[in-house]
TrEMBL record:
Stored InterPro entries: Choline_transptr-like (IPR007603)
Tagged with keyword Methyltransferase: no
The protein's name: Choline transporter-like protein
Record Pfam families: Choline_transpo
Sections of the chain in a coiled coil: none
Taxonomic placement: Eukaryota, Metazoa, Chordata, Craniata, Vertebrata
UniProt KW Plastid keyword: no
């Protein structure tokens, strides 16, 4: 096929862009505005001091205003602690604990000396007739929450400093890993075929050697008495040497290696052309990235967006969790007090006649719990779920934006008539602007579907943690099946979204149409997809191990992790390039106006197309 046909096909399949999934785009914008409003409301109502500082039974912060010299909270025994609201109508019921007076349930009978420097200020009691206290089993915890938080912050700072020092010390290793990642990707254009076939041949010889070794061990065990015992008769043993003394074990090894060897040989015989296609695509992807080097650094933008999303979600979650107001209840020693367990205001309680009435003598307005009576406080759990859902939505949208941007840049390389002369200037920036301007709705639509599935998986994990100690095997089994199904569903949706974003970037259609076309296009080339995925995954995994292992002698393990992340960022761009070119080629070869020629032959005959 000549250049004129290639150019005509490109113009036909690169239509003028128009906005897609406008309704979802509007919903996405409204949700973002609502998310910002939620953060503002949470910031106005929340108080992070509730997380940093403990509060006493009156809602006062320990060590703060009102309790400046009492920074440590006095804790009840958590296993025996009861809500004050539960104890309103209770009195000391047993003969094991003597009744002292009607204030027994309101004030702990512990001396100030025993709870020195603690936040709670308990009243003493004249124990003239009592030998035991009404409330027992108290524990004093000297390290308060503020001290623990400070220690944790100091530890985190020290760890960050150590990481920075290690990175600074081993900056040469990280720089080498960055350069090696780039060189590895560029050299795949020339070494992909050699590296892949060398590995396949090496695996074949290793399997053959394994079969020979198993046969030798089997021949030696034939003369050993007792080696003919079945594995089932032996049972379970932690010592694996027991199984290695059985002939049946080596027979299983020999059969497994033989079947693997035969499978690889059969696949090489019948899928040789598919492997050649995969190698040709890898070489072409390396060539494309050599022309559009800016794509290698786009993961930095994604990392920044993810950091912003995670930070905003974490801060909003903390403010939402600490936005409950202190709720005070009327605590009365009299059982027939009509105001018992009613909400009260401690600032105005003494000016009321509640404590002066005959049926409510001695009543007090005591802190009960953190909550609230407004709709905002009643639906805090729903707001936390909304915060989590929007967070997942924004994270998946950021990843979708990266995939669509890279796909548009690499597609512009593919449809260029002459390379690199006809590649548009700044292809990455142009693709990014197209994705934001025209396809925000489509990207948000796909990200929303994936986010809902992820939220369901998180809820299932939460339920699994709650039911872990349950003996109901039916519910555990159903929950396990649901977790497995939604895990598979998430993987499928993630894979289809990736290909749908590529089709959106290339042809500018809405998400559903693009996903449908991508699905049927992949189904018509299912063998090519399987071979390409396996070959690409293998080569990229080999590159990651090579690059991360290159700095493995560094004194800090953090540098090893950073090197692996650098390689992963580069290779994720390379994998996106391979997938984009593959869909372009599949669409090109299945076009009704083109002949059904082999893809590898097309690449060899017309590399510019």
């Amino acid at each position: 096929m000549d250049h004129e046909k290639c150019e005509a096909y490109a113009e036909e399949n690169w239509p003028k862009k128009s906005c897609t999934d406008v309704l979802c785009c509007l919903i996405f914008i409204i949700v973002i505005l609502a998310y910002i409003a939620l953060g503002i409301v949470a910031w106005l109502h929340g108080d992070p001091r509730k997380v940093l500082h403990p509060t006493d039974s009156y809602g006062r912060f320990c060590g703060q205003k009102g309790t400046p010299n009492k920074p440590i909270l006095f804790y009840f025994n958590i296993l025996k602690c009861a809500n004050p609201a539960v104890l309103i109508n209770l009195q000391c019921p047993t003969t094991q604990v003597r009744t002292v007076n009607n204030q027994c349930l309101l004030k702990a009978l512990i001396s100030h000396a025993n709870v020195k420097y603690n936040c709670l200020s308990f009243a003493t009691h004249q124990e003239s007739n009592a030998t035991q206290t009404c409330v027992g089993d108290f524990h004093i915890f000297r390290p308060n929450l503020l001290m623990c938080v400070c220690v944790c912050v100091c530890v985190c700072v020290c760890v960050c400093v150590c990481v920075c020092v290690c990175v600074c010390v081993s900056y040469r290793g990280l720089l080498i890993s960055l350069v090696v990642s780039l060189v590895f990707i560029l050299l795949l254009r020339f070494t992909a075929r050699l590296l892949l076939w060398f590995t396949i041949i090496a695996v074949i010889f290793l399997l053959a050697y394994g079969m020979w070794y198993c046969s030798m061990e089997l021949s030696q065990l034939r003369e050993t008495p007792g080696s003919d015992v079945a594995i089932v008769d032996v049972g379970l043993h932690t010592d694996l040497q027991v199984y290695l003394q059985l002939r049946q074990t080596w027979i299983i090894f020999l059969v497994s290696l033989g079947l693997t060897e035969v499978s690889i040989l059969v696949m090489l015989i019948f899928l040789r052309r598919r492997v050649q296609v995969a190698i040709a695509l890898l070489r072409e992807a390396s060539r494309a990235m050599s022309y559009i080097m800016s794509t290698l650094f786009y993961p930095v933008v994604t990392f920044f967006l993810l950091a912003v999303c995670i930070s905003y979600w974490a801060v909003t979650a903390v403010f939402l969790a600490s936005s409950n107001e202190a709720v005070y209840k009327v605590m009365s020693p009299e059982a027939n007090c009509p105001y018992a367990n009613k909400t009260c205001n401690p600032e105005t309680f003494n000016r009321t006649n509640i404590s002066k009435t005959a049926s409510c003598l001695g009543s007090q307005c005591t802190f009960a719990f953190y909550g609230g009576e407004t709709p905002y406080h009643r639906y805090l759990f729903i707001l936390q779920l909304f915060n989590l859902l929007v967070f997942l939505w924004l994270v998946n949208f950021s990843l979708a934006l990266e995939q669509c941007t890279l796909a548009g840049a690499f597609a512009s390389y593919y449809w260029a008539k002459r390379k690199p002369q006809d590649i548009p200037p700044c292809p990455l920036f142009s693709s990014f602007s197209r994705a934001i301007r025209y396809h925000t709705g489509s990207l948000a639509f796909g990200a929303l579907i994936l986010s809902v599935v992820q939220l369901v998986r998180i809820i299932l994990e939460y339920l699994d943690q709650k039911l872990r100690g349950s003996n109901n095997m039916v519910s555990r089994f159903i929950l396990c099946c649901l977790k497995c199904c939604f895990w598979c569903l998430e993987r499928f949706i993630r894979y289809m979204n990736r290909n749908a974003y590529i089709m959106v970037a290339i042809y500018g259609k809405n998400f559903c149409t693009s996903a449908q076309e991508a699905f049927f296009l992949l189904m018509r080339n299912v063998v090519r997809v399987a071979v390409l995925d396996r070959v690409t995954d293998f080569l990229l995994f080999l590159g990651k191990v090579l690059i991360a292992g290159g700095v493995g002698k560094s004194p800090c393990q953090q540098s090893l992790i950073c090197s692996y992340l650098i390689a992963h960022g580069f290779f994720s761009v390379y994998a996106m390039c391979v997938d984009t070119l593959f869909l372009c080629f599949c669409k090109y070869t299945t076009a009704p106006t083109t002949e059904k020629a082999n893809l590898a032959e097309k690449l060899q005959q017309n590399p510019s197309c």
